[in-house]
Q: What sequence folds into this?
């Protein structure tokens, strides 16, 4: 069996190991995922309060993200510490975006 040059090259690719990630990067990734999980009920509540929201509507998506991000910011300010800092530095908006895209 002959392999083309591209097939031979693909067999020699190196995979990225989790050992190359720093502990802080892994922790931040875990926190971002937890924030997205926490944002889902907020996004669902927004959707329940806006039954006419359309999944393909950019305006509805933006409104959901804004509402959820505000709630995340309020929670982050109340909690403080590293979680509050992560939310204040954009983690709340990222979590809101993920949650609203899932719900809508």
A:
């Amino acid at each position: 069996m002959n392999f083309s040059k591209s097939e031979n090259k693909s067999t020699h690719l190196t995979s990225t190991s989790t050992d190359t990630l720093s502990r802080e990067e892994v922790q931040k990734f875990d926190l971002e995922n937890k924030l997205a999980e926490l944002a889902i009920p907020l996004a669902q509540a927004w959707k329940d309060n806006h039954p006419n929201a359309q999944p393909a509507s950019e305006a509805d998506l933006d409104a959901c993200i804004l509402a959820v991000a505000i709630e995340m910011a309020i929670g982050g300010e109340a909690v403080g510490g590293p979680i509050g800092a992560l939310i204040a530095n954009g983690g709340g908006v990222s979590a809101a975006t993920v949650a609203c895209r899932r719900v809508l």
Notes: Residues 1-16 have pLDDT under 50 and may be disordered. Helices lie at 5-10, 23-49, 58-79, 81-103.
